[in-house]
Amino acid sequence: MKVSYSQDEQRFQEEVRKWFGENTPAEIRDQTLGGSTLDPDLQVKWHQTLFEKGWIAPEFPREMGGAGFSETEQFIFNYGYSLSGAPRLKTKGLSLGMLTPLLLQFGTKEQQEHFIPDMISGKTVWCQGFSEPEAGSDLASLKTKASLEGEEFIVNGQKTWISMADYADWMFMLVRTDSSGKKQEGISFLLVDMKSPGITIRAIEALTDHKPFCEVFFDNVRVPKKNLVGKINEGWKIAGTLLEHERLNAFPIGELLYAIETVRKNAEKTRYRGKPLLQDEVFRRKLATLEVDCDSLLYTFFRILSQLKIGAAPGPGASFLKIYGGELYQRVLDLNLEAIGPYAQSWYNIEELGNAVHQATMGWINSRSLTTWGGSSEIQRTIVATRILNLPRK
Amino acid sequence: MDFELTSEHLLFRESVASFVKKEHSFNRLRALKDDPWGYSKDVWKKMAELGWMGLIYPEEYGGLGLDFTFVMVLLEEFGRGLLPEPWISTVLLGGNLVLAGGMEAQKEEIIPAIVAGDLFVTAAYLEDGGRYDLNFCATSARQKNGGFSLSGRKIFVLDGCSADRFIVTARTSGATSDTDGLTLFIIPRGASGVEITPLKTMDGRNTCILDLKDVSVSESDIVGKKDSGYPLLADIIDQATTGVCAEMVGGMDASLEMTVRYLSERVQFGKPIGSFQALQHKAADMFIQKELASSVVCYAVASIDEKTEERTLAVSTAKAKCSSAYPEVTKTAIQLFGAMGFTNEADIGFFLKRAKVTEVLFGDADHHLARVAAMKGY
Fold it and tell me: Which residue in B245, B265, B285, B292 has the most chain A C-beta atoms within 10 A of its own C-beta, making it the best mutation to test that interface?
């Protein structure tokens, strides 16, 4: 076992810290706690900045456009990235975090060559079409239908909770190609151009007043057969692997570290009975509890990450990272609002506190989504119980 | 950074696990419940024959000179089976204090004897009113006849009923809560003025109250430097704390395994109760807590091995986590066992009691959280 860094790694740590300090635009940093509310244009701009630096995909080999970092370098990189206040990218999470490893495992060579480079450069933005009105946690009940006619699939149906569907160029989606057998059999995985005729999009307003996700309607949408990933009717297995990648990506380690720093700063600024709140015995204890839990998670994340090879499925272990990461993040943002006291009820910034108030309240509301999207914490706990602990299924 | 174990560590784990299985059982714990020692010298000698007392001691004193990761592996396995032999007190406290601070003559006399399994040594540093603070010391060491005279009372001296030697903290200068002015002395069990009162813990292990009434010691009984015993003690307690954390991780793992087995076998409403989501989700939470604790203990162990500057922070982070996770995991386990969990017939209760004892051993979660806050600068 080894915990300290070599001289080279220390130099790299300093380089990462310095680069993010100099290159993260303030307008982006101010929106970080808001998570998925970050403006899509800013996301794409930030994606391209990272791409130009060669740091957009720390885990991918250089010949693919990745940074080719070792596991330790990835850890150092992610840590420095997060602490700088630079936001994790939703665009990147979908395309590089989820779809790319999936295409490497199941896609054709043509699909890999056609789609991956543009995902890495940030030229194309992707969205994910899984959930439907009647298929949420029970994803396999999905009904959106694709029937093969010659060299094309004809897609009809409705998807919902699609993040950035109104902005994305492409969607990867699950469709029903056979309804005769068990519901898990008969699902296929398609890549769909969002400019295709027959697609209608309606954005949904969230509690944050933003419109982070959409409903998407498909009316006889034509998709070339070459955009099928894997074999027909075998999409469920592919989706399972992808959801594990999603859970690993859903784990908000970056936001967590930054959020803890934010709580600390807010508690330093807030006065309580003549002293900074940070010196209050009760508050200190609460913050230290979260720091300990955060470090425990950080080292667990590293332990799981180091077991992962590129393209390999993260396995059910990703579920518990998502459960705990999401719940811990909510606890941190609860404490962040506690830190600002009566300002916690405000929805707008107050001159003296800069952006802290709106960032705190917006972040707090946004954090409620972390334990539902990508499979609720309850579904994840069932996965841990049945697939890791091997408890009997119903 | 790397949390992988080498093949040597993995092989060692197998041999410790098979030893615990062969020499120990929960029925043995039941039999030892009212034993004044709470463990047996026979098993201790067998452990010594395998070289385990000298695991991390240098070869010149008969040890194996291995790294602290071996300690983690050993204690995780002890924690899984709840082996009661006093390895933490003798090797990580007593022996380590002598090794780190003792004079050559002290090392030569004490370390090989520990390695051979012939000597039990412990440390006596806690006092009533000081909670977990190592600097809190009202026990006095007054200069007398060219030596010192020690008076005071120590509580919860780990494995004190069976210890042959005590390394005690006493104040050679300063006020009760000062960090400076502490000196460590070795006192033999039979010294005049030493009184031992047994104080069994709820898990059947032995601790004692150690009363010192004008106990005479000489300069040559000092371990480390006069008036500067605190940093030495704090460093060794950090190591012992990391050891107990590893034991706690092993205990969490065994509690979870035992609970999952019970949930899979116990049938109600025509189904194994482990198929019910309300119970599954509690088991999932036990698993999560165990995994988190296990990772942060790896971080502490590696920090000790490499003597990093932030090792004290790593140790307190690990103990704060383990002191909240182990009790939580075992309380949930008792709940999931239902009425059976409340009986002495089921084995799971041993873990609840051990969790409470280890939760407070070397400081509870709040104690370590306060240290974390201070070290993080607030």
Answer: B292
All residues of chain B having their beta carbon less than 8 Å from the beta carbon of residue A380 are 284
C-alpha distance from B76 to closest chain A C-alpha (Å): 16
Q: With an 8 Å Cβ cutoff, is B314 touching chain A? A: yes
Which of B275, B291, B293 lies nearest to residue A393, judging by beta carbons? B275
From chain B, pick out residues whose CB is under 8 angstroms from the CB of A264.
378
CATH fold of the domain at B122-228: Butyryl-CoA Dehydrogenase, subunit A; domain 2 (2.40.110)
Predicted complex ipTM exceeds 0.90:
yes
Contacts of B292 in chain A (CB under 8 A): 293, 296-297, 300, 324
Q: How far apart are CA A58 and CA B302, in angstroms?
A: 25
Instruction: Map out the domains of chain A with their CATH numbers.
Output: 7-88 (1.10.540.10), 126-234 (2.40.110.10), 251-388 (1.20.140.10)
Q: In terms of CA atoms, which chain B residue is nearest residue A393?
A: B275
Best A263, A277, A278, A299 member to test B by mutation, with max B CBs in 10 Å, is A299
Q: Where are the beta strands (DSSP E) in A150-193?
A: 152-163, 170-176, 187-193
- Euclidean distance between the first and final Cα of chain B, in Å? 27
* Spatial separation of the C-alpha atoms in residues A221 and A196, rounded to whole Å: 7
Radius of gyration in angstroms for the set of CA atoms belonging to chain B, rounded to a whole number = 21
User: What is the domain partition of chain B in residue ranges?
Assistant: 7-119, 122-228, 231-375
Residue A314's φ and ψ, nearest 5 degrees, are -65, -20
CA distance A220 to chain B (A): 41
Beta strands A271-272 and A275-276 are antiparallel
At the topology level, CATH places domain B7-119 in Butyryl-Coa Dehydrogenase, subunit A; domain 1 (1.10.540)
Per-residue model confidence as pLDDT tens for chain B (378 residues): 788 889 999 999 999 999 999 999 999 999 999 999 999 999 999 999 999 999 999 999 999 999 999 999 999 999 999 999 999 999 999 999 999 999 999 999 999 999 999 999 999 999 999 999 999 999 999 999 999 999 999 999 999 999 999 999 999 999 999 999 999 999 999 999 999 999 999 999 999 999 999 999 999 999 999 999 999 999 999 999 999 999 999 999 999 999 999 999 999 999 999 999 999 999 999 999 999 999 999 999 999 999 999 999 999 999 999 999 999 999 999 999 999 999 999 999 999 999 999 999 999 999 999 999 999 999
CB–CB contact A392 B271 (8 Å) = yes
Residues in chain A closer than 8 A to B293 (CB atoms): 296
Closest CA to B234 of B301, B130, B134: B134
